[in-house]
Write a structure and sequence with these properties.
disordered N terminus; 41% helix; alpha/beta; seven-stranded mixed beta sheet; globular
Length: 720
């Protein structure tokens, strides 16, 4: 009887959990909010025609009856549904479509890129897709074209009117350029060996297959990411606003699924390897038959050996991609535990460890790749425990951690007074949080969420962050520097879509479909009286489950934002800085940073208390959020410092913005304080080749020059 009662309770609790919103998925809005001006524009322009190339499949597919399908059509269809707009495609010759857009015969373009030549007559939307440019050659690569230098004296076919390809062709000064009127002619030229190569992407391979010409393959990636945008005539800015609002309402997951639906290239057409290797790296790979690896056999959703003995999980999918990029098999050397995996690595019984975290002790025998899976460490507690806003306040208490995990070493380094109970696995760690003297279990969000869902644990919650980040890397034996370099190149080649696909596959809410709910229904019917007696208990559990989901939502927000000010935190600022550096390197576009420090902030805390200090920080962050531009990135750099990243902004433009922010802060009034608060600001513009640290250091030097002058001023860093 006791077992039946437990089953009934779990049945109710499970349904409460299933019917809730998943932690890792956000439901997009069914409609977007438009301004009155935008609504009036749609009424005045019920159809907005965008021209595109008829041969650019699968982005644009012209069907036999004349209708258009494909990626662009589906994206615009979603935007139309969300906004009530009437964006429509017209397919034809791309060169002709550009002329019509310029003369106003059509309203804009689709499947294009931001080009300087079009900026006089078109506005551009945010990107809705991106494609990796690749060098395509005849099947088998008969002329062994593996780099740009191999194309000296060779013929490259390009699609006339495609500005991106025409610009790219100018880099090949020693090659002959064959201009073709259509994409079909380009493919035919390469497939028939009239041309030695062309620039293309997955869509080119798709179209070649459709034409019955699967005789081209990828030689090597060019490293040029082409961001596709919609473009609308310059005098219709409302149209771009509508497009961008529609795009913002479509989740990245939806866009990835949509692209995956259409872009399914034949894997036989993809070459091995897909990364460029130097001579010593090639020699290393030639000297080994395979790359051996050992994993954590029970750390899902990251990795495990399942019941069939298969290596599965997040890292398994990454290693599969890396193996293909490198062109070598990764052979698994099984172990019984994570501790044994580390022993194997120390004794050189395996070449790599896919889920390694860099610690001082491990650096004695391993090198570490660049991070490919960053997650914050969090703490899971019983439902009766308070949410942990600041881990320092509990850093002297007892927590469980899986034996051998890097978290143990990292926690003891940062929190010397912490007490750690080492356990054999995550499930044991979670079960122990209810024992006297143990506050919680420390791991990552995906690892804890996986155990909660898999084992039906409804009496724990994620209560806060630990203040440490797990930067998952590939541990590489430190006597093989060439292998480390190869692994890093392979990690760098993993695309954003591949990363999202892996995350969507493993970091999501899953449920066991093997439960016989019909049988449970019969049991429930027979025990209806008992169920009525348990309704109160069900309500109690349901409230706690909702509280758990709310806490997890708050934690997701904490992962990205500063808890006090609700602007981006340091981690997100670092991520945005890396993204902006990559964009600047790729497109040679300017950007600047503003580093802001509140003057005499310590006096505010000393004279009026920390509550007043918090009030000042919140007020200034709110003021900055309102006054920076929509494209700017604002975050709390630390303490009383804020950083603003200004894309597409010159030094002079950033200085003007900094002066505006300084003035706004000076005008702030705090009734509880006698004096006004002021700020000092340092401004620096990106100089080609410098790192994010270099750039912020120059802004920081300028900031402290402002501090040393008179405070409440802006100082510009002119030199690197």
């Amino acid at each position: 009887m006791k077992n039946i009662v437990v089953i009934i309770l779990l049945f109710f609790a499970a349904f409460s959990f299933i019917e809730s919103t998943p932690v890792f998925a956000a439901k997009p809005p069914s409609r977007v909010e438009l301004t009155e001006r935008e609504k009036a524009f749609i009424r005045a322009h019920p159809v907005i025609t965008l021209g595109t190339e008829k041969d650019w499949e699968p982005y644009v597919i012209v069907n036999a009856e004349g209708s258009i399908s494909g990626i662009d059509s589906e994206v615009l269809g979603k935007i139309n549904k969300l906004t009530g707009a009437g964006f429509a495609l017209r397919a034809g010759n791309w060169l002709d479509m550009q002329k019509k857009a310029k003369s106003g015969l059509i309203d804009g373009l689709s499947t294009g890129a931001v080009q300087e030549e079009r900026e006089d007559y078109l506005n551009f939307s945010n990107s809705y897709s991106s494609t990796q440019k690749m060098m395509l050659v005849p099947l088998g690569n008969p002329k062994k074209i593996m780099s740009n230098r191999d194309l000296d004296g060779k013929t490259i076919a390009i699609h006339k009117g495609n500005m991106a390809d025409e610009k790219l062709a100018t880099d090949f000064k020693n090659s002959r350029i064959l201009e073709c009127a259509t994409l079909e002619e380009v493919i035919e030229a390469v497939a028939s060996n009239r041309a030695d190569a062309t620039f293309g992407n997955g869509g080119t391979l798709y179209y070649a297959n459709k034409l019955g010409l699967p005789y081209i393959q990828v030689a090597y990636p060019l490293g040029n990411e082409l961001k596709l945008v919609f473009a609308v005539r310059k005098d219709w800015p409302e149209a771009i606003g509508i497009l961008n609002k529609g795009l913002a309402a479509i989740s990245e997951n939806e866009l990835v699924k949509l692209r995956n639906k259409w872009l399914q290239p034949d894997e036989k057409m993809l070459p091995e390897p897909m990364i460029s290797l130097n001579e010593s790296e090639q020699e290393y790979l030639s000297s080994v038959d395979y790359i051996s690896m050992s994993i954590d056999p029970g750390w899902m959703p990251y990795e495990e050996l399942n019941e069939e003995g298969q290596y599965v999980g997040l890292t398994a999918d990454y290693m599969d991609i890396l193996s293909k990029r490198i062109g070598k098999k990764f052979r698994l050397i099984p172990t019984d535990s994570w501790a044994q995996t580390l022993t194997f690595a120390r004794e050189r019984k395996c070449d790599i460890v896919p889920s390694a975290i860099s610690t001082p002790s491990r650096r004695e025998y391993l090198n570490f790749s660049s991070a490919y899976l960053p997650f914050p460490l969090v703490v899971a507690t019983g439902l009766d425990k308070m949410f942990i806003d600041n881990f320092d306040s509990v850093a002297d208490q007892t927590f469980t951690v899986v034996k051998g995990y890097a978290a143990i070493e990292l926690l003891r380094l940062k929190y010397p007074k912490i007490k750690i109970v080492e356990v054999k696995d995550a499930l044991t760690g979670l079960e122990k949080v209810h024992e006297d003297g143990i506050l919680g279990y420390i791991d990552t969000i995906p690892a804890i969420s996986y155990q909660i869902q898999k084992n039906g644990i409804f009496d724990v919650k994620i209560s806060g962050q630990v203040g440490l980040k797990y930067d998952l890397t590939v541990g590489v034996r430190n006597d093989s520097p060439e292998l480390l370099s190869i692994i890093n190149k392979a990690i760098a080649s993993v695309t954003k879509e591949e990363r999202l696909n892996i995350m969507n596959r493993w970091v999501s809410v899953r449920y066991d479909k093997g439960v016989d709910y019909w049988l449970i229904g019969k049991v429930l019917t027979a025990l209806v009286v008992i169920i009525l007696l348990l309704l109160y208990r069900y309500s109690f559990v349901s409230r706690y489950n909702k509280k758990l989901l709310l806490m997890n939502s708050k934690l997701d927000l904490l992962y990205k934002t500063d808890r006090l000010t609700q602007v981006y935190n340091r981690y997100m600022l670092d991520s945005e800085m890396e993204r902006e550096l990559a964009r600047a390197a790729r497109y040679d576009s300017p950007f600047s940073v503003i580093l802001l420090d509140i003057d005499h902030f310590k006096k505010v805390n000393d004279n009026y208390g920390h509550h007043a200090g918090d009030t000042v920080l919140v007020a200034i962050s709110s003021l900055l959020s309102i006054n920076v531009r929509e494209t700017d990135v604002l975050g709390r750099w630390g303490g009383e410092e804020f950083l603003v990243i200004c894309p597409e902004t010159s030094l002079e433009g950033a200085a003007l913005l900094a002066e505006k922010l300084r003035t706004k802060i000076e005008e702030l009034h705090f009734p509880a304080m006698k004096e006004n608060v002021t700020a000092s600001l340092g401004v620096a513009a990106y100089v080609k080749g410098e790192t994010g640290e270099d750039l912020v250091k120059r802004a920081d030097d300028a900031l402290y020059s402002a501090k040393n002058m008179s405070r409440n001023c802006v100082v510009i860093a002119y030199d690197k």
